[in-house]
Design a protein that fits this description.
Blueprint (H helix, E strand, L loop, with lengths): L10 H31 L5 H14 L1 H15 L2
Helix pairs in contact: 1-2, 1-3, 2-3
Amino acid sequence: MTLPLLQMPGAPELIIILLIFVVGLVILVGATYWVYNDAQSRGNDNAALWAVLTALGFFIGLVPGLLVIVIYLVVGRE
């Protein structure tokens, strides 16, 4: 038995694209939330700036987002 949605032309590809989008959004929000909370708990005055930079990095792509997190871990946790 197949689902009616999967019988549409292009439906499996659309579902895969939707899943990739949702996973990327979860990573973006989760990483931004973690960086903001970590910076706030350490008393960093620039917690909101680090959160915005993390969100922008992940919005551009996975590698720039991870690069922002690495920079935060090296520089922002002083």
